[in-house]
Protein 1
Amino acid sequence: MANIYLTNSYLKDINTIVKDIREIKKKIAISLEENIFYPGGGGQPADKGIIKLKSILEIPTLRVLNLNDKVFLSLPTSEQISIGDPIHAEIDWNRRYAYMQCHTAAHVVMGVLKREVQNYSPIGINISETGDIVTAKFNGSWRRQMEDAKSFIERANEIIGRDINITIDTYKDISAAVNKYNEIYRGPREFSGEVRIITINGWDANPCGGTHVKHTGEIGYLRLVNFGIQEIAFSLIRDEK
Ligand SMILES: [Zn+2]
């Protein structure tokens, strides 16, 4: 199974076939030959979407989940589905794109924290289900003042305003990536096997299996929501429509 979201996170729909069928929690679950659904992880919620069976029957996904490195869509249907059946799959794009913006914003902000927080080490991020608030958790020491937290977000906004290119490259091992990106590398230095690095050109390079936008400008500006000893929460400023 090919996970297309890793190479093209902008693909909203696809025609493919059913590759595997299981039963998960008494529901039918299918995996597709070419998968565009993000199964969740790294603080980013799983995608939702629909599949179209036999070109007419439209079924919403109940859950999208990772099972032994294979993405399965569990479906609320009693319809007969067989391996090899043609499927048209569509992700809920507005929801996914909001997560891509939030997730990429987290890379920018963690790049700031790496520079501004002494002995910085990341704990993790969380993106709200609503796709507008991101919480970055970390260890390290800083003054823990409102003005500092605000200045972190201001610096992130400066990077966003420069509309920097974001690229994805795969390296055969972590040391090749660490050597290439040098001081902008942020992430573990011990890791076995192939590694996928997300680079915000000249600013940040980090191993990640998530979905990202192509330029920092696509994120839109950020606003500080809250902060604590080990966390900064920010929201994306959406255009009022
Ligand atoms: Zn990422």
Protein 2
Amino acid sequence: MIGTIFEIREFSLFDGPGIRTTVFLKGCPLRCLWCHNPEGIREEPELLVNPHLCRKCGKCRAVCPSGERKESGERVPFRGTSCNACGRCVQACPVRIRRICGERIDDDALVKRLVRHRSFFEAEGGGVTFSGGEPLLQAQWVALCAQRLRAEGISTAVETSGYASQKDYRQVISAVDLVIQDIKHPDSAIHKRWTGRSNEPILRNLAILKESNIPFIIRIPLIPGVNDSAEDLSAAASLLRGSDKLLRVELLPFHAGGRAKRSLLSTPSIPDTPESKAFWECHAPTSHDAAAIAPLTQPQTEELLRPFKSLAIPCRVA
Ligand code: SF4
Ligand code: SF4
């Protein structure tokens, strides 16, 4: 069976216990304005170009088989809206600033690649994590790969927004050893405003997870002014009452790394709406600002963790 991925990252320390290999899957149903992996949103492989390093030689335009290049004059670097990610321009570019993001791979080939890391996993208590994008968009393929890894004695985890049908959700969580799930906002209307989708399927699936016997970690990406108020975090903590298998809550401080990546995409995966422009104006007007966001102080950290501690939920700022 074939899946579409966009990265296999080795020696990851942030996607579950131990030293892990993380497989990033293409495709996501959400459109979070702060998305850190905008290259993972579209389901198909796509062309990425770093325009800042372009020498304007025109070789990309010259080799493109799409009819569009003829209509676009001398525009370089060339990025056609009808691009089918054939990769010819990637080969032609002398400064290697073009690449195809996305690879179709069958379960057999993926498992063979991952099994090679077994000695690291055994030595460090690690394993394989499926992330994205949203891995549950390719639920059957993820479940199949996880089952095959389990048969090889390799531990697996899935990192998910929880946005999926109940059938897909049950299929994947029962195939892995650990679920790492986001809560982006406890209120459905606010969730829809910032991510493009209501949180109803997510909360339904969270209830399934709480009733299951599968260990899980909840992650909350802290987005200033969106979900970091005491009320928002108290509401999130309330959702987690009675979770016997919850290992901990991790709060992830905001970073704006996805902002710079968006300029690499040929066509935006998150439309530039007035709301998205206002979001970035407020949170990181330039890439320089994105790198300069101050770390949380100890009193801020304590305040953010308070709603979880008050319910005796293990928690930390990651
Ligand atoms: S990857 Fe896209 S832009 Fe590049 S040659 Fe192929 S169709 Fe043209
Ligand atoms: S081939 Fe590379 S350097 Fe030349 S115009 Fe295209 S993107 Fe720029």
